[in-house]
């Protein structure tokens, strides 16, 4: 994997990923047998359709606002807030406004 950031320095995660008009960008920061850490940016109105993951996942919103559905429950999550998706729970998200998030998935 191509290294996309320096190690051993202070990082401003939101500045490591840009927005693209009408799209979604993802940038994997760490990938290992133990799990993945990935940055995402979403333009307003963009999102991810309902899906499941076999592991618990932590979403940390870095900028903006998203509507996130987990197990059929709708949450509006803002910059500085986080939500955990339980393993195998159906979840989806839509950008209320442009937003960036950090996704951490730890494998069991």
Automatic annotation (TrEMBL):
Domain Cupin type-2: 39-98
UniProt superkingdom: Bacteria
InterPro entries named among the record's database cross-references: Cupin_2, RmlC-like_jellyroll, RmlC_Cupin_sf
Coiled coil region boundaries: none
A Pfam family hit: Cupin_2
Protein name, entry field: Cupin domain-containing protein
Source organism per UniProt: Bacteroides vicugnae
Source taxonomy: Bacteria, Pseudomonadati, Bacteroidota, Bacteroidia, Bacteroidales
């Amino acid at each position: 994997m191509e290294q996309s950031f320096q190690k051993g320095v202070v990082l401003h995660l939101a500045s490591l990923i840009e927005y693209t008009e009408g799209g979604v960008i993802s940038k994997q920061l760490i990938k290992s047998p133990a799990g993945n850490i990935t940055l995402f940016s979403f333009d307003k109105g963009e999102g991810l359709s309902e899906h499941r993951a076999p592991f618990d996942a932590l979403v940390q919103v870095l900028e903006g606002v998203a509507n996130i559905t987990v197990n059929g429950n709708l949450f509006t999550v803002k910059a500085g807030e986080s939500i955990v998706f339980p393993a195998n729970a159906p979840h989806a998200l839509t950008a209320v406004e442009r937003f960036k998030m950090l996704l951490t998935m730890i494998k069991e």
